[in-house]
Amino acid sequence: MTEKWVKNLIVASVLAFCIYLGFGMILPIFPEYVDRLGGGGFELGVLMASFMFTRAFLARAFGKLSDRVGRKRVIISGMFLYALLAYLFTIPDSWWGLIFVRVMQGTASAMVWPVGEALVVDSAPPSKRSRAISIYIFLTNLGIVAGPLLGGLIILTAGSGLGLDPLVSIKAPFYFTSVISLAGAVIGILYLKDVLPPIKDRLRRRREEKLAYARIKRRIRSSLFILYANSLFEGLSWSLGSLVMYYFMRDNFGIEEVAFSILFGVSQGLALLFVYPSGAMSDRTRKKPFVVWGSIGTRIATLILAFTPLMPGGKWLAFLTYAGKDTGRQIAMPATRALQADLTPRRLRGTIIGTIQAYSNVGAVIGPVMGGLIWDLTNSRQYDIGILDIPGDSIPFLISALLGIIPAYVVLRWVYEPPKGKTVG
């Protein structure tokens, strides 16, 4: 049994690494790619929102589908779709031509990420749940760390080494993403195993689902609703500031796309060092403090980041606070995922994890549009706040920081954490 769950964890984590290596290559260069196709901050926000809207709309549906037909089938289908879409990103010659591809990429993401997380939770013993999720998150984020570094190298090689046109060079990471996603799908077919057998009888399946819902006590229900709201605000806060980070670093500190790719990767790498230790510690102690204080740490770092253009050595301080923002998020994430699983009945796990992801993605739908619009309206202005003369491009980060404080307190005050050794799921 132990070998089975460890093998499943490793395979699921490798698949996540493959997907997010490609995602990490694309994410830092996406603003520049949109710029070259005639877009700006608002257009970038629309594209980000279209991805998150589809993911938000379908995350619960695919989670529920995986409860019924098995996790593996949904994950593998999503990976094949992701591989196709990475290639299709290179075809449009204007920013609006990316909208359909971006919408479909949200569909693929809804099939892979929440369902993969549910499979890891299914596989791991409750006493090792945070550690298992932290390994999954570690390899996922390792892909995000390595992706920008590899993406920057590919662009540099295509441009300086091969002498390709700048637009063609920027497209090169999309081709690479398609290949590694396809390879990951094949690995999943060969080695990934479902833990919960799907229930083919429709009436029996509905009876089990209704019984599982009926067994959720009022205190658990209210905690899940608070976690839904917290996910909404987390998604909104994170996406609002992250969307315009490239523009912020470029305009204030002269950091262009290749340098930003490297900065993004190094920042994520530093934060990655805290994932497994925080997961292991939350397994041994309590999960909720890691959820709350990791989130608050992220808000404090984001608040400082907003003022770095006004500070001596602001460029280096911006780098440190950028890394600190990601570090707080990585500290909170394993404990957050494990606490959600502890409160979730096993037969409903895909549905509820998908629902929590959906709320996060709704926030991430609103955040990019808000962030892009705020950026376009404020980045060329100055604002007098008390004794400070704040540049307008700091405004998205101030709003991002403030949006996360209240949900963190609500989680601390009202979310129930089962006693150590006892879980609903």
Structure write-up:
This protein has 16 helices and 2 strands. The longest helix is centred in the middle third of the chain and has 33 residues, at 129-161. A hairpin with a 2-residue loop joins strand 1 and strand 2 (388-391). It is globular and about 60 Å long. By secondary structure, it is mostly helical. The mean pLDDT is 81. Helix 6 (129-161) runs antiparallel to helix 11 and helix 11 (257-272) crosses helix 14 (314-342). It has a two-stranded antiparallel ribbon with strand order 1-2. It has one domain (2-192, 205-414): MFS general substrate transporter like domains (Growth Hormone, Chain: A, Up-down Bundle).
State the end-to-end distance: 18 Å
Number of strands: 2
What order do the helices and strands follow? HHHHHHHHHHHHHHHEEH
Ranges where pLDDT stays below 50 over 5 or more residues in a row are none
Question: What's the tally of helices?
Answer: 16
User: Can you give the helix content as a percent range?
Assistant: over 70%
CATH architecture: Up-down Bundle
CATH topology call: Growth Hormone, Chain: A
Side-by-side strand order of the widest sheet = 1-2
- The portion of residues forming beta strands comes to under 5%
Largest sheet: 2 strands, antiparallel
- Tell me, briefly, the overall form: globular
- The average pLDDT value, as a whole number, equals 81
Kindly give the count of domains: 1
In angstroms, what is the radius of gyration? 21 Å
Name of the top-level CATH class:
Mainly Alpha
Structural class: mainly alpha
Kindly report the name of the CATH homologous superfamily: MFS general substrate transporter like domains
